[in-house]
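Dihydrofolate reductase: structure, please.
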Amino acid sequence: MGKVVLYSSVSVDGFIADENDQPGPLFDWLSNGDVPLDDSGGIRVSRASYDHTRSYWDEIGVTVVGRHVFDMTDGWGGKPPSGIDHVVVVTHRPMPEGWDPNAPFHFANSIETAMARAQELAGDRTVEVAAGDVGGQVLAAGLVDEIAMDVVPVVFGTGKRYFGSVDAQHLLENPHVVIQGNRVLHLRYRVRH
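Here you go.
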């Protein structure tokens, strides 16, 4: 079984978007470099960010998101982002009207069901969980192995929190990945269980 990684780009004060769900400059590091991160060539990062991010993206078999992210992205048009094989959506609502049931998206009505399905689909590859409310719930349930953050030098003050509404203490190990890119710091921490 692969590891579970909670991930997002984040402001230095812990937000993944502003109050209006806008990421502001959080994704600027994905367009401020010279090295194409994917085949589209639209994402260009520094060499350090490429070396870190490309290998991380290649580990991911499944991404778990909440219905809010799914709706905001319009389900990525039925094609999982960044070459990921499957997306598991945590939701209490049915799949959208007219949604292609053959698209590699799976709908689950609880964190536990979503994570079991994601692990099954991922096999020994990484299950990535999007930070935010769902990510915080997965962490609170004790199902996260690592925290991955792309910390961007901006202060939001308010907005959508990286860990959602988590209100309990969770101890992490010292960071085992610390990589400085162009206007981003890539960090990874193992979660103490």
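Notes: The first strand starts at residue 4 and ends at 11.
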